[in-house]
Here is the input.
Amino acid sequence: MEYCENGSLLSYLQNPSNYCNVKANRENPEAVNELQVLVDLVVQVAEGMKYLASRDIIHRDLAARNILLDSNLVAKISDFGLARASSQYVLQRPKVKLPLGWMAPETLVPMEGRYSDRSDVWSFGVVVWECFTFGQPPYSQQFPQGLNHEHLHQFLLDDNRLQLPAICPQWLSSLVLDCWITVALNRPSFSQIVSRMDASVGTANNDL
Here is the structure.
């Protein structure tokens, strides 16, 4: 396995020295550079997931902790322990602890959770949220006592969502909300996500 000098994306996000300018003053030129790094990272993750989806691989555990960064901050999607080579997968009896905070509504249905590339799209939206909250755990404010399938499932079916911080570019916030559409087939594919990013990233500096 390739050595990734910068460790996981999660640990990188949680290192205050990497984003000290953003937190102090987002108008600072250095802060703009730091935010651009975040945009570049989520674009790389989307491109990696586009490749996996084209091979009918469902990751099922896409999260900042499972993305590694090399010395040049090139993102590498890792940890395929829950992955399945299939266009759709139904989980009937989970035998491992599941990453609830990154799971789409259709995957939270007991005994019949349905996974597809569009459930990975939902998880990608959570990864973007992790990036712009500097590695906060999802739903920790909404569920301070911890998550469970039933409560989170109902929370999401009631159209509640994580709140993206103001430092996230507007075009990217809009894309993430589309990743969190309740009906899986109405979410964009990773191919569509990458196309939208390619069309928007050229103007990202003006939006930051």
About this structure: The beta strands are 57-58, 67-69, 75-77, 84-85, 88-91, 113-116. The mean pLDDT is 85. The helical segments are 9-13, 20-24, 29-54, 117-132, 149-157, 170-179, 190-200, 204-207.
